[in-house]
Amino acid sequence: MWDNFDPIQLFGGLGMFLFGIYLMEEAVRKLSGGSLRKFIRKYTNGTFRSIFVGFLSTVALQSSSALSLIVLAFVGAGVIKMQQAIGLILGANIGSTTTGWIVAGLGFNFNIEIFALPLIAVGGLFSVLLSEKEHLSKYFNIICALGLLFYGLGLMKSSVEELGNAIDLAEMPNYGILFYFAIGVLATAIMQASSATVALTLTALNAGLLSFNDAAAMVVGADLGTTVTIVIGSLGGGVLKKRVAWAQVGFNLITAFAALLFLPILIAFVTIFFKIDKHPVEALVLFHSSFNILGVLLFIPFIDRFSNFLEKLLKDRKTNSAKFINEESAKMTYSALIAMKKETAHLYNDILFHNLKVMEIDAKSIFINNEFAKEDKHLSLPKEYENIKQLQSEILTFGAGIQMKELSKTELSQLDRLLHGLRLMVHSAKSIKDIRHNLLDFESEENSFVNEQYHRFKERISELYMEIAKILNSFESEKIDSFKILQLLEKVKNDDKIFLDQTLSAINKQEIKDLSVSNIIVANRAFVQSNRQAILALKELVLNNTENDKLSNEKQEFIEIEDR
Question: Helix 194-206 crosses helix 212-225 at what angle (to 10 degrees)?
Fold first, then answer.
């Protein structure tokens, strides 16, 4: 009976099928990469919305593994939360079954070669001829990919049909559903594509090489095998990535166990719509979709509890200071830049808290609604500054990794602004740290003018940081008026002028000694420098390229500020 079996044709068809999936995935990703990522980011609020977005994204990409890697990157970058990530993964599991419907609907009900070769011809030729028009050629890549996918399926189908006719299924050894379940897991883990395993299973079922129960077990195993991709993607990543990976593993394990446990009931449900002996392929695809949808429906009420369980199980034991970039490998430029921006905002908030602590001001009274408002860890000021330098180093290292990638002009400009803002904000912390001893002297100074100016320093920085807090609280959700930042700079200038006028008046009235004059003027210079640098860092953090350029052109004060 093996005389009719051609293994070269089978594996050649499998290779063509896999390459077709890969080509389609890459083409779709390049065509809609940016818009798809923005779509995922924007519309994943709420469990049902995130599930629906996960479903649509997987249908578009035709790869749940590709979406899983995007989810990993987004969670690591702090773009989406754990509950949203779980919802996306649940939706991806349902979306992954659409490939089976395409294969069953077209691959087994029509003569594939009639339209597969024309698709390859049209797609392949025009993708090469229009290669200079990259965006247009990607559409023909998708057409060519579809042709390869169906032609590969046709080769697999024809290679085993004769073998199936020569085999009596009743004489085959009964290995049991667990054996075929394990084969499904192993095949998907090796090929990194559950759709290829499903296609092979459908082919074998169509040829009579597998019973429906055994084929159903293989499809269940294929779903569990997809978790290998996300587990590999989480290796070397932070705890957030590991939580996402194990969320998918946990869901697929539970779903697979339930599908095997209730296999007879699910098969009975499928037979309502399709007679297994007449339409085995369609029945198997319906079975695949049914147990995934059932698994999602059963899992929805427990998403929050499951997320909390993973947080307790996989605790964050990192010793570094970063919150976002430690979860992001910088392989995906878009999410890496988001991670870096969030981490820079994190550092900026830490610096503002540090500066207020230097001035002995309670930061919580100013940053009431700030997401980074934190409990006082009772660290000494030297330790806080050491942490600031540590986080600066981590962000710079991360930024260097991004610079090694191929960046667009806009991305490069955004990266430069973040690095410039990073440098400014750390200078702000250093400037005010260096006058800490002066401030302590002013607080205990018997001279009423000096003592009064110390309290005025506290008022000046409190008023400024309250305005900064308002901008930080709103810049994620609304467009910032660039001239609000300009007004902050004008305020610092006016406060400085008032100070100098008052100091000059005190000197003329001999209300202040020469040594005190020198000390308080030097301290004021560093204090003003720190505030200006904080404002400039804010400008780089919250304004886009166009607004930044416009503001810099309007006011020369935004240039060479660090040299003052």
Answer: 170
Q: Which of 49, 135, 421, 92 is nearest to 229 (CA)?
A: 92
Centroid of chain to Cα 195: 24
Number of domains in the chain: 2
pLDDT exceeds 80 at position 127: yes
C-beta separation of 222 from 184 below 8 A:
yes
- The span from the CA of 392 to the CA of 276, in Å, is 63
Does residue 320 sit within a domain?
A: no
Instruction: Enumerate residues 6+ apart whose C-beta is below 8 A from 98.
Output: 58, 59, 62
Residue 284: name the closest of 213, 180, 184 by CA: 213
C-alpha R_g of the chain: 31
pLDDT digits (tens, 9 = 90+) for 521-537: 999 999 999 999 999 99
pLDDT in tens, 211-233: 888 899 999 998 888 888 778 76
Query: Do 426 and 351 touch, CB atoms closer than 8 A?
Result: yes
Could you give the CA distance from residue 416 to residue 412 in angstroms, rounded to a whole number?
A: 6
Query: Over the stretch 237-291, which tens digit does the pLDDT of each residue have?
Result: 567 778 888 888 888 898 899 889 888 898 888 888 888 878 888 888 899 889 8
d(CA 452, CA 38): 52
pTM: 0.58
Q: How far is CA 526 from CA 187, 392, 504, 534, 537, in A?
A: 66, 21, 18, 12, 16
Give the domain range for residue 457. 326-563
d(CA 115, CA 195): 21
DSSP character string of 163-215: HHHH--GGGS----HHHHHHHHHHHHHHHT-HHHHHHHHHHHHHTTSS-HHHH
Whole-angstrom distance, CA of residue 395 vs CA of residue 387? 12
Length of the chain: 564
Q: What is the mean pLDDT of the chain?
A: 79
Residue 443's CATH number: 1.20.58
CA 461 to chain centre: 36
Let me know whether 308 and 401 are in one domain.
Answer: no
Together in a domain, 236 and 332:
no
User: pLDDT value at position 419?
Assistant: 92
Sign of the CA dihedral 157, 158, 161, 166?
negative
Query: What 8-state DSSP symbol labels residue 302?
Result: G
